[in-house]
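User: structure tokens for this one?
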Amino acid sequence: MSLEVLTKRAVAIAGIGTLALLAACSTPDSPKADTVNTTASTAPSTTPTTMPSSAPKTPVQMTVTVKNMAFSPASLTVPVGSTITWDFEDSMLHTTTSDKGDAQQWDSGPLGPGNKYPVKFTTAGTYTYHCSLHSSMTGTIIVQ
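Assistant:
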């Protein structure tokens, strides 16, 4: 055989070997070394989990900011046993005062900036409140 024929065969064999090697290293079923297998069997469920209504809910600590002549947020929903702390940040005096008739009564009295007033809610219900100095300031705590 001539040198030219041998060279063509060697190049062809080398090319086939390279293709076979590449095919073996990158099959669609084999993840690459820097990828993570995310098949359906190992991926976390995206279905929301809901607790049964009879399961106890963990009490939380929440803050209502008193600023700019408003309670923020104006409405909160929390589990029984939760504590709401009013954080007074406005430059003028305000109160957090439960409305008459609520099962739980509280009145912070006039408080200025830098003061905090916590209330623990131990009974389920809807509690409305206001600032006794500024009637336009109102809020609601829903305890479940």
